[in-house]
Amino acid sequence: MRKISWRRTSVAALGLCLALTGGLSGCGSCSKDKEPGGEAAGLPAKVTLLSAPLEGIQAPADVLAYGGTAPLNTLLGALSGLATTAGLPVPPLEAQFGLAIKAELNLKDEKVVDLKRSMRFAVLNPKLHAAEPVALLLGATSKDAFIAALPDDKKTGDEGNAYSYLRFPGSSQAIYVNFILDTVVVTRDKTIYPRYRDFLERLAMADIDRAAGVIIALRNLAAIYGTDLDAALAEVKKNARAAVSTIPGADRQAWMIDAFTDGVGRWTRELDDVRILLDTPADGLRAQVSFSPRANTELQKTFASLKGTSSGALLDRLPADAPFFLWMDVAPAKLQAISEKVAAMTVGAMLKADPAKKAEYDQAMVDALSVMSGEFALAAHAPLKGDGLSLSSIFGVTDSEKARKAQTKLSSVYLEPGAIEYYKKVGLEVDMKAAAYMVGDVPVGVFTTKIGDTNPQLAAMRDGLTELLTQHVAIGKDVGVLAIGTDARPTVEAMLGGSLKGGLRAAPGPARALKQAAPNPIAILYLSPIELARRVRLGGMNPVAPMLAGIESTTGIGLSLGTEAGALQMVIDLPVEQMQKIGQVVQKTKGTF
Q: 211 with 75: CB under 8 angstroms?
C-alpha cells in the first residue's frame, strides 16, 4: 500500500488536519458557507453550480476521502480561544495560516486567500497520482487578485490546468492552480483537475453546516487496496499468533487475534463509508463518527440487531459521585446469539481437556446470559467506608431463580482441576466461597484471586492489585450485583437492600454525557479524568492527589455508541469545563516532572 507523501504538500496536510480538528471552531450553529455566484471557467454559459450537503456528494471510484471546514477565520479564532481557555497560549492563528499558505504556494500576498470562506480537500487514488494525490480548495478574495499574486514565471494552459509554476527554481514538482468561480483548486499532479473536475465542482459548492466534516469512502478504499489489506492482515495475524504461542491460554489469545483481523477485513469490505462530523455547542466539543454499512451485508444485519430496549434506569441505583461509569444495553436476543462463543472464551477454555465438564459449564454460561435483560452498569464511586474509590456493577435479570442456579454452577468451576491448572500456569490461584455471607435470602459469593511468586511481573504488582482481585457476586430478585474490593460487603448489602444512595443519572457530569450521547444508545462511557486521578487509590496510595488538590471537576468526557438509520454512530463529548480544568492542572504541575 503506497504511503501518501504529505510532507511534499504541506498545504494539503494542513487542510486535512484542520478538517479533522475543525470541531473546535465553535460553529455548530454557523450559517452555511455560500460560494460567490457567477459562471465557472470552462462551464457552458449561464450554468450555475448548485449547492448540496457534503454527505450528499457521490464520490467517484478513485476518491478515497473528502471534506471541509467551516469558515477559516471562525475556525482559527475559535482554536485560539479554546487554547486560551485551557491555559495554552498560542500565536494568532489567522496570521500564521496566511503566512504558511503564502510560503507553501509562493504567493506574493497572502491576503488573496479569503479566510472568511471554507477550506475543502479531497484525497485521491495514490496508485493513479504518484506525485501527490491531494486536491486543496481555498476561497480567494477574487480570481483576478489570486492570479496576480502567483509568481511571474507561471505558465498558462498547462495540459488542462489554468496555471502552473515551480515553487522555487529547480523544484522537480510543479504546483497547478485552477478556479471554480472564486474557489482556488491547488494540486501537485496535473492530471487531477481535468480528471475530477465535475467532482471538485460539486465539492466546491458543498454546504458544510458543521464545524468540519470528513467522509472516508471505504467502498473505494476496499476496491483499490483490498488485496494489499488482505496481505497486511494475514501478516499481522501470523506475527501476533507467533508472539502469543508460548503464553498459557494461547488458544484464547489466538481467537481474539483472529476476531480482530477478520473483523477489520469484514468491516472494510462491508462498510460504505465513515463520516466524521464535528461540532461545538456553546459548552464544549462534540464529534460524531458514523459507520454506514452497504446494503444487504452481514454488517448491516449486525448493526440492526444491536438496538437495546432499556432506558438507563440502572444508573439511578448507582451513587451520584462516580467519576467513571460504563453503561451498556444489548438486545437480549443478541446476548443469546453470542452466548456459546462467550462460553467458549471463558469457562470452556479452562476445561477443554475434559469435554463432558466443558459442556456442563458451557451450558451454565448460556443459561446465565439467556436470563439477562441486556442492561449493565459499572461505576467507580466512593466506598461506604474509607477513602478512595470502589468499583461496583449491576445488571438486569429476568429470571432470578435460573440466573442464581447458573451462577452457582459457574462458581464451582474454580474447584475443577482443569481450571486450577489453567490459573496455576500464569501464577494465579482463585479462592472461592460460593456463599460467603447472606443478604436476606440472597447468597453472596466471594472470589479472591491470589498472585503467587511464580510470575514475577504480577507479584511485583500484588499490593496495588489486591482490591481489584476480590469480587463479591450476588443475584437478587431483578438485578445481579458484582462489587470489587475486600471491603465490598456493605456496598452489596446496600445495593440489594435498596439503601445505597443512588442517582448517578441525575449528577451533572453523567447527565450531560447521557444528553449528548449517540441516538438510541447501546453503550455510554463517562470519565472525569481529574476526579478519577484525584480520588483513586492503589495499595492505599495516590502520589498525584496533592498536585490536584483544589482542582475539582463536575463534568467529564463522554463516549457513546448508538444506532440510527442503519448506521452505527460513535459520539465523543468534551465539555469546555474539562478543557479549563486540564489547563489548570498543566499550569499547576508545570516544571514538576
A: yes
Cell numbers linked to 81: 480561544
Report DSSP letters for 51-89, one per residue: PEEGGG----TTEEEEEEES-HHHHHHHHHHHHHHTT--
The cell for 264 is: 477489520
C-alpha dihedral, 194 to 198 to 204 to 205, nearest 10°:
160
* Cβ atoms of 185 and 135 closer than 8 Å: yes
Cβ within 8 Å of residue 574, ≥6 positions away: 284, 285, 286, 557
- Nine cell digits for residue 428: 494465579
Which helix (H) or strand (E) is 277 found in, with range?
strand 271-279
Q: How far apart are CA 310 and CA 134, in angstroms?
A: 45
C-alpha 354/C-alpha 173 separation (Å) is 68
77-133 pLDDT, tens per residue?
877 777 777 667 778 888 888 899 999 999 999 999 999 999 999 999 999 997 789
The answer to whether the Cα torsion of 154, 160, 161, 164 is positive or negative is: negative
> Between 120 and 386, whose confidence is greater?
120
Q: Which position has the higher pLDDT, 297 or 539?
A: 297
Q: State phi, psi for 261 to the nearest 5 degrees.
A: -65, -40
Name the range with the highest mean pLDDT among 26-30, 335-339, 399-403. 399-403
Percentages helix, strand, coil for the chain, rounded to the nearest 5?
40, 25, 35
**Interatomic CA distance for residues 446 and 199, integer angstroms:** 63
Q: What is the DSSP string of 567-579?
A: EEEEEEEEEHHHH
Handedness of CA 107, 189, 8, 75 (dihedral sign): positive
Q: How far apart are alpha carbons 526 and 504 in whole angstroms?
A: 11
Q: What is the DSSP letter of 499?
A: -
Q: Inter-axis angle of helices 400-411 and 355-370, to 10 degrees? A: 150
Q: All 3 cell numbers of residue 364?
A: 451454565
